[in-house]
Amino acid sequence: MTDIAHFQRGGATRRRGRAAGPSFWVNETFWGYVVRAEGRPSPVVLVTQALSMLIAAAMIVVAFGLWLSPASFVESSDLVFRGVASVTLVATAAVLLWHASRGTKVELQVDLNMAEVREVVNNRAGRATLLGRHGFDAIGGVFIDRSRGRGASTLCLRYRNTSQMLFVASGDDADLEGLCGRLGRDLVLDRRKSA
């Protein structure tokens, strides 16, 4: 994983698109750079995190409620059932709380030292969760998807030579072209030199 203290010390270069859509940040670090897309998080992510928090809270209340009924100390077989149910509810609630506390924005870390691209989500406390790790050899190409119309382009990485894409940033074509060229040089051309 990465050292967050060094990540925050990196100098930030802000790119603003001329379009009304979101732009991106490029933070330079000693091991490479981080591309962080601006904009609002997806409503689906916000809704699932809020539902996860509510369901987890309800599960914890039910787990404690199982032990508050007066008949809970009468039968030993009932104690085993309540214990198993409580542990299951609390464990499920812990997973849901973990999901609810994760961040909402994915950033792309290009590590030139380790020759890999990482997808990372930072939570509200600043702790990073690794979503995916791809070596430079797994990147088939870097391109700008202009299919959504003028001013709404998206920079993507192609995974190997498949149809799977890795989203990098969206914004104005002029800003994305500079980042596309840099990613192309770092990820694709360096690999061809070493081959």
Which features would summarize this protein structure in a list?
195 residues, alpha+beta, six-stranded antiparallel beta sheet, 41% helix, elongated, disordered N terminus
How would you sum up this structure, described in words?
The chain is an alpha+beta fold and 195 residues long. Helix content is 41%, strand content 29%. It contains four helices and nine strands; from the N terminus they run H-E-E-E-H-H-E-E-E-E-E-E-H. The strands form two sheets. A six-stranded antiparallel beta sheet has the order 1-2-3-4-5-6, with no helix packed on it. Strands 7-8-9 form a three-stranded antiparallel beta sheet, covered by helices on one side. Helix 2 packs antiparallel against helix 3 (76-101). Residues 1-22 have low confidence and may be disordered.
Mean pLDDT: 78
The arrangement of helices and strands along the chain is: HEEEHHEEEEEEH
Number of helices, where a helix is a run of at least 4 consecutive DSSP H or I residues:
4
**Number of strand segments:** 9
Order of strands in the sheet with most strands: 1-2-3-4-5-6
Describe the oligomeric state of these chains in a short phrase.
single chain
Low-confidence stretches: 1-22
User: How far apart are the termini?
Assistant: 27 Å
Provide the structure class: alpha+beta
Q: Categorize the overall geometry.
A: elongated
Radius of gyration, in Å, reads 23 Å
Question: Helicity level, as a percent range?
Answer: 40-55%
Portion of residues in beta strands equals 25-35%
**Main β sheet profile:** 6 strands, antiparallel
